[in-house]
Amino acid sequence: MRERFERLDLNLLRVLAALERCRSVTEAGRLLSLSQPATSNALARLRDAFDDPLYVRVANGLVPTPLAERLGPVAARQLEALEQALGTASDFDPQRSSAEWRLSLSDLGEIVFLSRIAAAVLGEAPCTRLSNAAVPAGRIADALARREVDLALGILDPLQRGLRSAVLFRETYAALAGPDAPPAWRTRAGLSRASLVVASPTATFHQGIEQVLVRHKLGDRIAIRARHYAAIPDLVQAAPVVAIVPETFARMVCERQPLLQLWPVPLKLPQFEIRLVWHECTERDAAQVWLRKQVSALFGAA
User: Fold this and answer.
1) Which residues pair with 131 in a beta bridge?
2) Confidence (pLDDT) at 302
3) Which one of 97, 182, 259, 283 is most buried, counting C-beta atoms within 10 A?
4) For residues 54 and 42, what is the distance between their CA atoms, to the nearest angstrom?
5) Cα–chain center distance at 83
6) What predicted TM-score, i.e. pTM, was given to this entire model?
């Protein structure tokens, strides 16, 4: 095996790393700006060099052989380390870049963050593109390590291995209601007689607001459970209800619909940190540093 490695074209390691990440010849070629035939040829040369199939086709893509399971992650880590070592802040030109930025935002995060990020990023880097992958919180570390996403924003655990983070701002909940909401709803006693609305998106921190209301003996006042935050403004406009929602979202809604009312919830509610999270492998990458600075400038991180 050592003799085979000494004869190996080291350019093929980039293909091996891309296949490890994408598990698809087509996607690996796109990542490396290679045609599918060129990528297939490179895979054939890798198979010949190591005398192993490396990746075997199955219904949903490619699966690695035991040898590829050993070699692929090592190649990916070493190439990422080399890329990081070569990068400097002066290497990135936003006006000329055609990067595709991949974010991970929840349903609420997309509403609150995406339009402002798009305006700032595309204003400075007009040839780049943005997409939201909405990775589940439990997969964030893996998705960042595999470069499936560049940045994640939200209520996230920054202590997972390999992650870096910055607190953007601290958030709490607010009450949001229509223009005819009675002043009594602003009190604890009045809120206990109101019909409440909560949003319960799947597998996010904000599912916890219902448990908080239950602890305050207001669980039986929940009249509507919405699947998406986007439904909340119309609900409070149309019905005599009060929604308990994150304050940043409530303020954004009121800017767009100034007749709606917003006030602090008259309960003891938790605060939570909204974080910007990235992987250590991109810590010094020039393009990634630039992107993080744009997002931090928008939402308050130092």
Assistant:
1) 102
2) 43
3) 97
4) 12
5) 23
6) 0.67
